[in-house]
Predict the structure.
Amino acid sequence: MNFNLNTFKKKPHFIKAWKNTIKFLKLMVKTPYAIEILGGEPTLHPDIENIISEAVKDKYCIQVDLITNLAKPYDFYKKLDVKENSKLTIEASHTLNIVEINIFKKL
């Protein structure tokens, strides 16, 4: 499911929906796994820092990928770079807009 700021304004119960997913993974998955946090812009989720924090705590979780278009300021990402989040990787994703596509066509 993709979330954006309007999702949380219209359906505030979605803010905590991630907790059931993390709980399920911790209870049911007993082999190494990785998590990708993506879709829309995951850093817009009001609980994104808690989601990452809880995900990396699971001993079977070997990696958490935050795939973002870097919508937040640098300081936001810098504060995620702590020892407790050693399983976290931040991957920049960028979709070309029509202006950029036209520039590539000229090259």
User: Anything to note?
Assistant: Helices lie at 5-10, 18-28, 48-57, 74-78, 98-106. The first helix runs from residue 5 to 10.
